[in-house]
Write a structure and sequence with these properties.
The chain is 38% helix and 26% strand. With 282 residues, it is an alpha/beta fold. The structure holds adenosine-5'-diphosphate and magnesium ion. The site of adenosine-5'-diphosphate has 14 residues, from helix 3, helix 4 and strand 10.
């Protein structure tokens, strides 16, 4: 998808979106290794794009981010969804041990199930504002911006996304904007192609990677404005307790293209080990 048009230049967008809330303050995901990768967490008030193909764990990460925000950091949150039936979300969350209904009853969480075209109208932003005020919310997840994209003209997407991001920023929310990409064959996708990367402060990518005939998952902080971060691709798993991040795939290369090959030195070590093993067994 290529998006052009819009009268505002990239740098103007950047300036308009500037002015962060509480520079330096961090919003923890509660996933220890991810917070380490982010050098403490997302930056407060930042808009984070969470991109990945279907089934990589975007919804799970978004819910975990919100639930942890409430239960561990006292930060109420809103989950805006366009794509799934709410009952399914409550059920799936419960399977991770996250009781969204009781958080809603305690007025700490709100699941907003709306149609994308409604979110684009200022009327629904007012509805969102009421919820934001009522909680009062500190975190928000929008599942997903790519779904929203289906309802606007390609050349309007950037403007609409910009309007939404700015709106959330003026409400001092730390936001997670989900973006579903097609992971086709071996080619790597590019968030920058979508033309949204300059709109957001941080980009987190979830990827499915084929390594030695098995499909594994990896997480990467592709960009983080104004902060150092882990530049490595780290393996993760979705466990019954949520996200579990493991070590970096240091011994592999070519992972961003979707299929990993062991780097030559590793292959050599392996061959060497194999060879020496054989010698010993003789
Ligand atoms: N209760 C659970 N325990 C462990 N893994 C789960 C559980 N629920 C879902 N998953 C895993 O998470 C994946 C879906 O993640 P999801 O967050 O829905 O992805 P996305 O939103 O990116 O499409 C499933 O394919 C499954 O592997
Ligand atoms: Mg999802």
């Amino acid at each position: 998808m290529s998006i052009s048009g819009g009268k505002t230049s990239h740098s103007e967008f950047g300036q308009l979106l500037g002015g962060r809330v509480g520079e330096g303050a961090r919003v923890k995901t509660g996933i220890m290794e991810l917070d380490e990768m982010l050098r403490g967490g997302f930056m407060e008030g930042d808009a984070v794009l969470l991109a990945g193909s279907a089934g990589t764990g975007k919804t799970t990460l978004a819910l975990q981010y919100l639930v942890t925000g409430i239960t561990r950091f006292g930060e109420p949150g809103i989950y805006v969804t366009f794509e799934e039936l709410p009952d399914q979300i409550y059920r799936d969350a419960k399977n991770f041990g996250w009781d969204l209904r009781s958080l809603e009853e305690a007025n700490k969480f709100k699941l907003v199930c709306t149609s994308p075209n409604l979110l684009l109208e200022s009327g629904t932003q007012t509805i969102l504002d009421e919820v934001i005020k009522e909680l009062p919310a500190k975190r928000i997840a929008i599942d997903s911006l790519s779904h929203l994209a289906m309802y606007v003209q390609e050349n309007q997407l950037r403007q609409e996304a910009y309007r939404l991001v700015r709106h959330l920023k003026t409400r001092e929310l730390s936001s997670l904007l989900l973006w579903e990409v097609n992971q086709t064959g071996g080619s790597s996708f590019s968030v920058t192609e979508i033309g949204l990367s300059f709109l957001v402060d941080c980009i987190v990518v979830l990827k499915q990677i084929e390594i030695e005939s098995s499909l594994r998952k990896a997480i990467l902080i592709q960009k983080m404005r104004g902060s150092d971060h882990d530049k490595r691709l780290r393996e993760f798993e979705i466990t019954p307790g949520g996200f579990k991040i493991e070590s970096a795939f240091s011994e592999y290369e070519g992972l961003m293209t979707g299929s990993g090959r062991k780097v030559a030195s590793e292959k050599f070590v392996e061959l060497f080990r194999g060879a020496s093993g054989k010698t010993k067994s003789r």
